[in-house]
Amino acid sequence: MSMALRTMKLDECLEMLGGAHYGHLACSNEGQPYVVPIYFAFQARVAYSFSMQGKKVEWMRRNPKVCLQIEETPSKSSWRSVVLTGKFQEFPDDQVWHEERIHAWSLLEKQLNWWEIGSLTPDPLPPAPTSNHLFYGIYVSDISGRKATQTD
Ligand SMILES: Cc1cc2nc3c(=O)[nH]c(=O)nc-3n(C[C@H](O)[C@H](O)[C@H](O)COP(=O)(O)OP(=O)(O)OC[C@H]3O[C@@H](n4cnc5c(N)ncnc54)[C@H](O)[C@@H]3O)c2cc1C
Fold first, then answer.
1. pTM value?
2. Total tally of structural domains belonging to the chain
3. Residues 25, 38: contact at Cβ < 8 Å?
């Protein structure tokens, strides 16, 4: 069995991202990487997501340069993978970000149970003066994709 590996074109990468809802989000702080699985919705070069306050949000506020990776593995010898780098942007509940916040909500609400996983936390949260959840986007700066296919 042999395999062919090729680079995906930009429109293939965008098409795959548009149909994806799950990926691995990487951020970093003072040279230390951190990766977590997340749900997201992708549209017009923005990956929209939802989160509770926590480590990844704190880190992305300090360093908004992030990376999101998705893959499809229909078989051991055929797969597609897209890696995007981008900039984290929060959508606070204010006039400036209102439209993006509503847009994020409208895309994400179509996805089954996304809010339950995004709002899960293993420990009781301390009393918070403001809302514990947030909507955010990752504005794409660079995208690459690779596709492997079985050739015989
Ligand atoms: C299929 C799936 C979909 C998810 N979708 C979302 C989503 O859309 N939005 C969202 O906010 N979260 C989602 N999560 C949960 C997410 O992966 C994180 O667990 C969660 O967001 C908490 O991350 P945090 O950085 O705020 O961690 P904190 O609650 O601040 O905890 C930090 C510590 O807990 C550990 N930790 C945190 N998360 C994980 C993990 N997943 N696995 C192992 N150790 C962990 C870290 O090592 C870290 O030191 C999803 C998880 C899965 C499996």
1. 0.93
2. 1
3. yes
